[in-house]
Amino acid sequence: MKALIVGAYEGSSSSDSPKLVLTKNGQQLDFSKDILKSIETLGPVKKGKSRLFHGISNQYLVVSLVNLGPGDAGINHVEHIDEKKENTRVAVAEGLKSIRGLDSEAINEVVVDDCGDAQSAAEGIFLSDWKFDELKDEKSRRKPLSFSLLNPNGENAAAWERGRLLARGQIIARRLADMPANLMTPTIFAEEVVKATEGTPIKVNVRDKAWIESMKMGSFLSVAQGSSQPPKFVELHYNNAPDTKPLVFVGKGITFDSGGISIKPSAEMDKMRADMTGAAIVAGTIITLAALKAKVNVIGLTPLSENLVNGEATKPGDVHRAMNGKTIQIDNTDAEGRLVLADALTYADSFNPQAVVDIATLTGAMKITFGEACSGVWSTNDKLWNLIHKTSIDSGDRVWRMPLFKHYTKEISDCHLADLNNMGKSRMGGSNIAAAFLQEFISCPNWMHIDIAGVMWNGADKGYLSAGMTARPLRTIVPFFESIFQNEQ
């Protein structure tokens, strides 16, 4: 049997007592008057909430009405978000939650009103339907449902499919990030990427430790030497814009981070299985771009390693030489993300890129700065910043620009033993100091660094994302990359 999610607007945001108005699709339902009559009797549905109706349709076992908020909602320039799009995602997710709350074996398909924005509706429904439960007993897993669009046509069907693919890309990355570290080693990650890209136009090269050594990636190897798991360096190539220079996307791939000898506290250390979320987002982004047949030329680089403690682990005060020849004094082995990224960024320049973007769960200071509200972005190029800021407003997954002042460079370049120190002299401005360190390994003038440590994890179901690793802001990055190449035309 089918269930239906249908939307209604509150009329105007300026109305003192907003009256719910069904969407265009909702008004065409033969039981629309029954819904409106019930609202008059029981009172309105609150914004972002739902109300279930039983027995009003022969076609649908249950109908979930969701409040989409004001009909005239749009971009909120204070919040830096398109509220109409975000309201749609949240509302349809709430509608699905109300249907799943029935725990009905009879319902196997949910039909979804496009709510005037089929892409956002698809993102909300498919993202909210997923949770990481594949390691549980089959009886405990979420019952699978199929989803379809109410009154599909050429335009809204295409938008629905785009939203579905964007959600799927984020789910791919979420799964990789949430998988326990014993089941997501560097080798397994590489195997998963190869498997996920089979039958696509993506070319994957999996580099081993011998190749990493031949490239003189001493900074990367300084992290990997503390683990018995061999490091990997995975390259993904997707080129559907052959007459353009590539954009290189680099993702931190620490499949478990104990902190090394500078060991982390035990509390919540289990979440460090997701210290490879940057690499997961690189893979999910490129898989999504290929599925969308996007006209882009993107190379993904994911240096993969564990950061553990053994007799060969890097010791605080050790000095290692990076691929670009610079020596690094490693005073804190828990600042390892910048070490693996340093060599990957140097290697990125070998592709003569038009731009380099890196993404990483890099610094705990991001949580202190922003909480879970947004990702931090550092950019040497205003155009790149403006493009990603615009796409973040649309996606609902926000970013905020951070400084690349020389003040922070001095923190890591005034070093006793080597050219650079992997830690600043001050504990203040830690995220900015980490970005300044990475900048020392970039030659491309168009560079962007994204720190996602603050948005890595949801402690509970929130909006349209279930508890667990979030893979934010993948849905911002995909259109960001598309817009870079659209602006090249």
Automatic annotation (TrEMBL):
Cytosolic metallopeptidase that catalyzes the removal of unsubstituted N-terminal hydrophobic amino acids from various peptides. The presence of Zn(2+) ions is essential for the peptidase activity, and the association with other cofactors can modulate the substrate spectificity of the enzyme. For instance, in the presence of Mn(2+), it displays a specific Cys-Gly hydrolyzing activity of Cys-Gly-S-conjugates. Involved in the metabolism of glutathione and in the degradation of glutathione S-conjugates, which may play a role in the control of the cell redox status. This is Cytosol aminopeptidase. The keyword Transit peptide does not apply. It comes from Tetranychus truncatus. SUPFAM superfamilies: Macro domain-like, Zn-dependent exopeptidases. It catalyses: L-cysteinylglycine + H2O = L-cysteine + glycine; Release of N-terminal proline from a peptide; S-benzyl-L-cysteinylglycine + H2O = S-benzyl-L-cysteine + glycine; Release of an N-terminal amino acid, Xaa-|-Yaa-, in which Xaa is preferably Leu, but may be other amino acids including Pro although not Arg or Lys, and Yaa may be Pro. Amino acid amides and methyl esters are also readily hydrolyzed, but rates on arylamides are exceedingly low. CDD domains: Peptidase_M17. Residues 332-339 form the Cytosol aminopeptidase domain. The keyword Hydrolase applies. Coiled coil: none annotated. Belongs to the peptidase M17 family. Its EC number is 3.4.11.1, 3.4.11.5, 3.4.13.23.
